[in-house]
Amino acid sequence: MYEQSITSRDQLRSVYKPPGDGAVKKVLSSLDQHCIDYLALCPFGVLSTAGADGRLDASPKGGEPGFLHVEDAETVMLPDWPGNNRLDSLENILDNPHVGMMLLVPGMDETLRINGHAEISVDPDVRALFAIKSKLPISVLIITVEEAYLHCARAVWRADLWNADNHIDRARFPTMGQILADQVKGYDAAAADKIIEDNRHDLYSLD
Questions:
Q1: Is the entire prediction scored with pTM above 0.85?
Q2: d(CA 127, CA 138)
């Protein structure tokens, strides 16, 4: 343990100011119209879950703006499209239904945070809400909202996140295929990159 580590709430509060009145009172128990409008614009978020053993997972989720379906002020639905089939989030939810989401809208500095609990549905009518041409998600998370609030912009300001001048030249970092080849014995970098590029052009296929 490092020197001067904080080990109690009293110690923690001794080095931070009390939260402002707005920071406390802005937390809603359901979605208001501002939250609903934000979700209609939102193409990306991070889903946080925890397993029975307390280990945490944060998984990126995305789609066209409005990829989350607002059923009502207490219910948000998140489609689960084909991916790597690790199922970290879904298996965690079977053990522990509590979830958190942080949602971002490009060009907007505030983020939306939603906390609640989730169940996994494979109901055909629910999946049909997210149909893209002939493709349906494999399952849908039905999230019951317990807390929702718009988070202040400081982190996005510090990161200058939406400034295109900050985007790196992608050639500065190895391709994902090369990374896999370095990390997993027997992987072929070029073949892996070809699969990844093919997936980019067929995002909703089960194959």
A1: yes
A2: 8
pLDDT in tens, 109-136: 999 999 999 999 999 999 999 999 889 9
Side chain identity at residue 143, one-letter code: I
The per-residue pLDDT for range 47-85, each reduced to its tens digit, is 999 999 999 999 999 999 999 999 999 999 999 999 999
Task: List, edge to edge, every strand of the sheet that includes 69-72.
Answer: 56-62, 44-50, 98-104, 111-121, 139-151, 75-80, 69-72
How is residue 142 annotated by DSSP? E
- What is the domain-level CATH number for residue 70? 2.30.110.10
Task: Kindly state whether residues 131 and 188 are assigned to the same domain.
Answer: no
* DSSP-derived 3-state class of residue 141: strand
Is residue 172 domain-shared with residue 78, that is, in the same domain?
no
Whether 193 and 141 share a structural domain: no
